[in-house]
């Protein structure tokens, strides 16, 4: 990496040191806390400095970081992160799901921010050690897990605009329940589902931007739109490209709040098949690991219908006998609205580490301006534009056949009840 | 702001308290330090917490901030800032330039990030007190000043995705010289000028995005492109919209590195006039205060040519006798290239608090892909696309007639040598 006589130290998991806390905190009862609020006993920290490279990783008592007010991360937002989960399986063992993918994506995010990189395997070893020492914080309850948040921040203490040549790489863990609160009357996964609002005046990402990386800076611009969505009675924002276009001209779905977006459409014609569509990774969409897992599982199932290979699912994904297509392609609001009107929109769902798989119950569209925007239904008159929802076929509440199969399969793979492709790894 | 019985405390400058350092640091000699690296003795800090509101502002010894690892600012980049300068005038007094505008913009940025807001006048009073106590750090040398960096960060200690209901608002100051290093052989403002590279694969902002606010998160995505520009031999990136478009199809200039962009064109036809163009504030461009000041000064001059009003400039802005138009409108790379080829591109310059006014000497275009992009000159052949520069009329080096007049006028207004519209305010 450099031509100096002094080599830059790589991130070395064998140097991991542990500083123990004097008194362990009490672990709260699952169900009593919100998402991300609980602080555990430990955190994992390592530092990079120009010229020296990576310090020895340390697991130490959770506590505040001391940062210079001029720090690059505070001034210019060189902050990247990952979201992963550890689960307790029926065998009592703790497992992480495809964590190698998170490590690879974190390196890619760091590179995009001009931050120093590191050996992803070395970081994963250190995180595994953190999860092991925090074992008692992993809730075993259904729908609960230990959320793991690796974070990297640029620490150069200068307001000069430019890359940070020093960084802090730390990981915190926090016990979590379901991301969306569940009514006791409607247990997951038949949860009624979330509602999304497409807001034409707010665009999350765009060609040539940073929407395809997991950067902290992709999130805060969504806070004000999220408040607007909540005020209009929706759970999250549905991000679209092509701001300001009338929906029938093709506002294109990119992703949903903190999730990737999937739609299941009954095929036109009489083949009795279905098409599962998700927007392509064109650089404007987060390359979700749950998204990738869902696509791999669905494609293996679709292949099994025409070959002698084995499906990862034990039951069919739709009630008909036709083919299943799994396609990454642009999906516009107008296509979705037309499919809904024709009764072909079977289900929509979101995928993500935080939510796993969650039903999308309805989609609204918020006009750019009261005078020019056109809502997506046919009842529109030019003087009274309003939000009109796209709803699933038959007013479906909760996960449909595809979403439910994915929810159950991914849940079983994550907690180690089932195995597929070596995706879950026991934390030893 | 809330309906509680307990009122939320507003930011109150009359509560300002000062905690003195024990030993003052030595002030370094101007010319020996880079931009933004020096730490002075003090910083100004105030905290907002949900339910209580603003704490008493405090000027205290400069030092690290203690931040929870889960802080909203580190995880999701709710960080906003301002850039202002204090100058020592020929009368020995310290002055700030249009600082009220910075305060207003900071409030607007905070709102966009969902951060708590504050009374801009109250913050300005506290900053004035900080500048007064740090008086000895203001360099009096030509081209030098005390850079002031108000910063606000969201401090909610939870990784839950959403607005921060607590914040830290702090201000640091640092003595600075010219932003771009000046060769001793070429004193400012006849500085040869900077070069800009338009990179088609990187887009800073877009309609529906946050480019029109001064947010920390607008800066780090530019660090990797900036490195690319430097590798190609250019000083900064020229940000354009319409990524991937061939330049002749109209890649549109938005701004230049950390500056707003101006071009001066000789009019077509024979009226002997000039047109000064800068891109409009359409939400994709930082509403620069130096940009606004330049527009106001230039428009006052243009008006003076046709009315009996007084010009703020003592000499003409071009050698001809024709009219001067000052226009905010989109400006494409192809228009600039055509004007350059026709000998009508008289000058380009950038404006900003950090640079004041700086000459733009040449503009290059970096293709999206070696196989599809088209460079902006006519020597192009399809198999050998290359970077070809737009250069000013007659290969102009340094500021032209308009840029030089602005540089001198703004410099005189900033240090208090001259007065106009009450723009500079003495720090008492």
Automatic annotation (TrEMBL), chains A, B:
Names of required cofactors = pyridoxal 5'-phosphate
In this UniProt entry, the residues modified to N6-(pyridoxal phosphate)lysine are 214
Q: Which terms does the UniProt entry file under GO BP? A: L-leucine biosynthetic process; L-valine biosynthetic process
GO molecular function list: branched-chain-amino-acid transaminase activity
Query: Keywords assigned by UniProt?
Result: Amino-acid biosynthesis, Aminotransferase, Branched-chain amino acid biosynthesis, Pyridoxal phosphate, Transferase
Q: Which CDD domains match?
A: BCAT_beta_family (cd01557)
One GO location term (cellular component): mitochondrion
Q: Which family does it belong to?
A: Belongs to the class-IV pyridoxal-phosphate-dependent aminotransferase family.
Q: Tell me which PANTHER family the record gives.
A: BRANCHED-CHAIN-AMINO-ACID AMINOTRANSFERASE, SUBGROUP IIII AMINOTRANSFERASE
Full protein name: Branched-chain-amino-acid aminotransferase
Its ancestry begins with:
Eukaryota, Fungi, Dikarya, Basidiomycota, Agaricomycotina
């Amino acid at each position: 990496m450099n031509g100096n006589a002094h080599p830059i130290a790589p991130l070395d998991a064998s140097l991991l040191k542990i500083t123990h806390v004097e008194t362990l905190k009490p672990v709260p009862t699952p169900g009593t806390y919100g998402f991300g609020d609980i602080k555990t006993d430990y955190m994992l920290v390592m530092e990079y400095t120009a010229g020296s490279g990576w310090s020895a990783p340390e697991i130490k008592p959770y506590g505040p970081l001391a940062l210079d007010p001029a720090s690059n991360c505070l001034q210019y937002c060189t902050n990247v992160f990952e979201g992963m989960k550890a689960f307790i399986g029926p065998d009592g063992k703790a497992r992480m799901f495809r964590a190698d993918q998170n490590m690879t994506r974190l390196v890619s995010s760091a590179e995009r921010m001009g931050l120093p990189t590191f050996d992803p395997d070395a970081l994963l070893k250190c995180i595994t050690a953190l999860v092991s020492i925090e074992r008692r914080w992993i809730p075993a309850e259904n729908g609960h897990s230990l959320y793991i948040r690796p974070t990297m921040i640029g620490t150069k203490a200068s307001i000069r605009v430019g890359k940070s040549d020093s960084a802090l790489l730390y990981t915190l863990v926090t016990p979590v329940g379901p991301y969306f609160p569940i009514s006791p009357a409607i247990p997951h996964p038949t949860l009624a589902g979330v509602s999304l609002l497409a807001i034409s005046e707010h665009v999350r990402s765009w060609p040539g931007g940073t929407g395809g990386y997991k950067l902290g800076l992709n999130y805060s611009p969504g806070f004000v739109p999220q408040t607007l969505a909540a005020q209009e009675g929706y759970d999250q924002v549905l991000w679209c490209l092509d701001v300001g276009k009338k929906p029938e001209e093709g506002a294109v779905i990119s992703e949903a709040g903190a999730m990737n977006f999937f739609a299941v459409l009954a095929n036109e014609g009489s083949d009795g098949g279905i098409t599962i569509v998700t927007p392509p990774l064109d650089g404007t969409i987060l390359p979700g690991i749950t998204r990738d897992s869902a696509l791999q599982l669905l494609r293996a199932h679709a292949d099994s219908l025409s070959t002698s290979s084995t499906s990862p699912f034990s039951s069919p994904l739709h009630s008909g006998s036709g083919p299943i297509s799994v396609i990454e392609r642009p999906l516009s609001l107008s296509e979705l609205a037309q499919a809904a009107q024709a009764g072909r929109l079977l289900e929509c769902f979101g995928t993500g580490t935080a939510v796993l798989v969650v039903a999308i119950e309805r989609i609204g569209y918020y006009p750019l301006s009261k005078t020019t925007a056109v809502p997506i239904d046919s009842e529109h008159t030019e003087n009274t534009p309003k939000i009109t929802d796209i709803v699933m076929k038959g007013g479906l509440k909760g996960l449909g056949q595809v979403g439910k199969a994915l929810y159950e399969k991914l849940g079983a793979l994550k907690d180690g009840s089932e195995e597929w492709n070596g995706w879950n790894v026991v934390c030893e």
